[in-house]
Structure to design on (418 residues):
């Protein structure tokens, strides 16, 4: 449950893990609702250490032993005393302190650490508590939390279903949105809950404050002007095959620096790589990954655009394709199994997404069309013929009004039924 208003799909899983005698690490991009969710799940007597607060952060940086003292001063509790550290990556020594306390007494404290960037931890070699922790990741809203309009058709079969656990159907789902709104404003909880007039400004604020300022604060980039230009180009090319050399030429950065900047976006959970499916027998495959921003609304703002329905209507097909990939990726991440790929050959064969899950392959094409035809599935059918044992069925995700069987092995699926 997110506060008194909206339910989160991951809340049940996280609540159950909080009862276990391990350190809990919750990561995710800024504004995905991590702090709000944990504050709703943790009792009021929890010790909260907010390292997003500059004053609090400075005290812990100046006195590395301060965290241990705070924890030791807590009175004992039968089930352990909960300690919640927000933006834990801001003071990496906190991880060493947690390991020290946990190893000395595994029952006295129950630690919950929350963070929005893994970059500083990776570069400083911070202790990520191997063998002592449960790792969690919170994403922007999925369709399970943020229902579609029109409603999902009950008999439709999703290629990657993300169902609410038994007995936990949402009493308070986020507002329903149509497709264009999703492509324009994305799925950050605060943006979805906001009035339409405020959404674009909130997304611009995310880019200026939560993204750029965090990078500045951690001194992660030497040439700030070149990085801002890189960010705009990377956002504009989201969903395309990454052109390291082209972006390097546009920004004046070296190709290795461009690759490092993409890694920075991944470390801050702002985007993810979509690798080529390497199991194809075809010899002329492209090998370069695609890169997708984690949220369409953030993508627009990072590209220097004001998020709006008008932007979507200029090129709806490309934004629709990205949205489907992001939704599939979030579901696979929550399920904790499976991978997402794409396929493109130099002779023109392309499949937007290939889901690899439990030994099975599911190819997916994304079409803006309301009337898909079997001709739209020719690449899907070729893939199914080439992988008869692993791939049994393919999908065209589109804007049709109801599921359509285009071929024995191909279903056209309305976006709202994904």
């Amino acid at each position: 449950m997110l506060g008194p208003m909206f339910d989160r799909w991951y809340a049940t899983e996280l609540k159950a893990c909080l009862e276990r005698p391990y350190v809990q690490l919750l990561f995710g991009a800024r504004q995905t609702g991590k702090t709000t969710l944990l504050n709703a799940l943790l009792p009021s007597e929890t010790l909260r250490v907010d390292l997003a607060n500059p004053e609090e952060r400075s005290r812990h940086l100046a006195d590395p032993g301060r965290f241990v003292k705070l924890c030791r001063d807590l009175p004992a509790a039968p089930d352990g005393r909960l300690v919640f550290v927000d933006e834990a990556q801001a003071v990496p020594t906190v991880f060493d302190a947690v390991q020290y306390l946990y190893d000395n007494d595994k029952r006295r404290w129950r630690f919950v650490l929350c963070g929005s960037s893994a970059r500083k931890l990776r570069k400083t070699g911070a202790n990520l508590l191997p063998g002592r922790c449960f790792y969690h990741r919170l994403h922007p809203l999925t369709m399970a939390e943020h229902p579609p309009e029109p409603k999902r058709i009950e008999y439709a079969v999703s290629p990657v279903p993300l169902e609410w656990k038994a007995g936990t159907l949402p009493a308070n789902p986020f507002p329903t949105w149509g497709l264009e709104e999703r492509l324009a404003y994305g799925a950050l909880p605060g943006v979805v809950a906001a009035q339409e007039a405020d959404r674009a400004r909130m997304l611009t604020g995310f880019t200026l404050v939560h993204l750029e300022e965090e990078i500045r604060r951690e001194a992660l980039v030497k040439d700030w002007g070149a990085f801002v230009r890189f960010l705009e180009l990377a956002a504009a090319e989201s969903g395309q095959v990454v052109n390291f050399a082209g972006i390097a030429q546009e920004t004046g950065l070296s190709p290795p620096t461009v690759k490092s900047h993409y890694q920075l976006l991944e470390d801050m959970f702002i985007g993810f790589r979509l690798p080529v499916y390497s199991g194809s027998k075809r010899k002329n495959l492209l090998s370069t990954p695609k890169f997708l921003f984690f949220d369409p609304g953030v993508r627009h703002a990072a590209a220097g655009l004001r998020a709006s329905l008008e932007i979507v209507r200029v090129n709806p097909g490309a934004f629709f394709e990205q949205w489907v990939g992001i939704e599939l990726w979030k579901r696979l991440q929550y399920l904790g199994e499976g991978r997402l790929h794409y396929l493109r050959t130099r002779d023109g064969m392309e499949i937007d997404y290939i889901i690899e899950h439990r030994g099975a392959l599911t190819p997916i094409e994304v079409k803006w069309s309301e009337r898909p035809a079997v001709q739209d599935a020719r690449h899907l059918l070729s893939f199914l013929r080439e992988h008869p044992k692993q791939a049994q069925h393919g999908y065209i995700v589109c804007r049709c009004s109801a599921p359509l069987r285009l071929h024995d092995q191909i279903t056209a699926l309305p976006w709202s039924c994904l």
Observations:
- The first strand starts at residue 23 and ends at 27.
- The mean pLDDT is 91.
- The chain has two domains: 11-137, 179-417.
